[in-house]
Protein: inositol-phosphate phosphatase
Amino acid sequence: MTLHYGALLLDELHDVAVAAAREAAAFALEGRRDGVAVAQTKSSATDIVTEMDRRTEALLVDRILTARPDDGILGEEGADHVGETGIRWVLDPIDGTVNYLYGLPSWAVSVAAEIDGVAVVGVVAAPALSETYVAVLGRGAHLHEPGGVRRLAVNDPVALESALVATGFGYRVERRTAQGRVAAAVIPRVRDIRRGGACSVDLCSLAAGRVDAYYERGPRAWDLAAGGLIAREAGARVEGLRGAPAGEDLIIASGVSLFGALHDLLASLNADTDLG
Structure:
């Protein structure tokens, strides 16, 4: 599959993505030291946007379009540039904005490059953790940290009752209520649950073997694009329910051996709906 896209193109996209994500991550980290102001709310009072979200996205767009002016852009904070190359960059300038606001370390800059809708490069830079996760389609996933670089692999095999499962919650009351019901039913069936607060970081934690699975209803394209590729390249199965692609309805990600049991449990709980 990588041969279809060409090694030189993938190398170029990788280099642009890594450079842009790292610069944006350093910029956001420095901005955090100066204090954070909430610029607006979106779907609810708890769904916030900071001024640094906007400024970080603007930096990403500038760097990417300077390097590749004919590509498309989709950003969480409104960047929407129609390209001419079949390549689209999917950006989350600060995934985990509430963590960022409170000074918690689990937040990241997420940058993915897609060709004809397929993610081929993903970078998740988590500067407060001193970690950058990188994946190229067909080349595996790697974690860059102060001690060096290591190739990532999900935990597999893992039984459902032994699984440490990450999840997240939405911002609207009805969705949180439904997600709480699902989580309450999942907890007795697994080892434990973790809630990190940033989809991209959760997917990278799965890739790094720090959790065994991740599921959530609500993540959007910019939450999933880079982290989903990183998890897949580390050996994860990343899908929705009943063969649907991972998306806003639901994402389930785990090693192959665990996926079926977790999928069936979540299907029995109607985890892809907001029903009470």
Remarks:
- The longest helix spans residues 7-33.
